[in-house]
Amino acid sequence: MKNILVTGGAGFIGSHLVRLLVNKYPKYHIVNMDVLTYAGNLENLKDIQDKVNYTFVKCDICDLEKVKQVFKDYQIDSVIHLAAESHVDRSIKDPFSFAQTNIMGTLSLLQAAKFEWQGDFKDKLFYHVSTDEVYGSLGEDGYFLETTAYDPHSPYSASKASSDHFVRAFHDTYGFPTVISNCSNNYGSFQFPEKLIPLFINNICLNKPLPVYGKGENVRDWLFVNDHARAIDVIFHKGRLGETYNIGGFNEWKNIDLIKVMIKTVDRLLGREEGVSEKLITYVTDRAGHDVRYAIDSTKLKNELGWEPSLQFEEGIEKTVKWYLENKDWMENITSGDYQKYYKEMYNVN
Ligand code: NAD
Ligand code: DAU
User: Is the minimum distance from the CB of 88 to ligand 2 under 6 angstroms?
Assistant: First the structure.
């Protein structure tokens, strides 16, 4: 029996992880703590919301007293921490809220766990979910290893790097039971359409311009979100305390090539002439401080814990496009209201 606190479980990756844990481990109690920002959506968890081993608690991770109370109420023995402000472009406009949630929020969770566990760390775990962006940017060659020096460039990645440092500091200072994973770009269902893949699928469907930053030559390493959730499951159960594990699928794509694959797939599935939507490609001003290339080496995770991605990219992107086409209501619900304002401000459109 475990009482696992998952933070940010109403978001993109968190909802996939919560679903996996609730269905796979009926004897665990999964407590999903989420404050429901614009990115948190309980619709993402409709299929499991009535399960007896699942509880949702609306709570800000920065609210130390309330977090402590949740630890008490549910006798939390493990934390998987995903709650964060997660979009680089928003961090460029509003770095403060990223420092608040990602740094102070993580510290608040660490303090609550340390206080409630009172030095008895047997069978306890604090698992911090982080990103490959903390390692900075690569040139044409090479990969991020667990030993790569931190070199964050955006306010988002700087705040995640700082949170990683706090987690390690708690391990080294208090003997706190921690593990960290750093993952590459995720894609799949339920991703908020501020991120490249859902935003572009939606715009292609609506025949709207596709705002490609710079020359579209930046490279990202894409992993299907369910494979990230599977990796977290493996690391949670088998990872060594104090360790870091990189998660990635050795699946690098130049943005413009990935965009053309999305265009072809959407056009085909909508019965349009394949590639006709390439006319929507619009090159726009580059993202400030835009990291050139990310590429994760996840050999340690494979060799030590036996995890490998389950899905080839071609299959993953087909599934993903189909999901967005079949779930138009989900997309319409979150793109009405505030999203319109965000979109206009971010992309300078009327
Ligand atoms: P997301 O933006 O989709 O979801 C974040 C969730 O956190 C939302 O449900 C939001 O309501 C919640 N949240 C935000 N502030 C909170 C607060 N103060 N208290 C409680 N809940 C709060 O993010 P995501 O893409 O699912 O990313 C989840 C985690 O994984 C983040 O820590 C992110 O840094 C990391 N990560 C993401 C990716 C990716 O490609 N998306 C890759 C690697 C790592
Ligand atoms: O690498 C892991 C990270 O991946 C996570 O930690 C972040 O939470 C997640 O948002 C993601 O960050 P990126 O900045 O790489 O993802 P995004 O989808 O915002 O952008 C992917 C690439 O596409 C990037 O090179 C910028 C480009 N882009 C993005 C948008 C939104 C465009 O060209 N146009 C756009 O409109």
Answer: yes
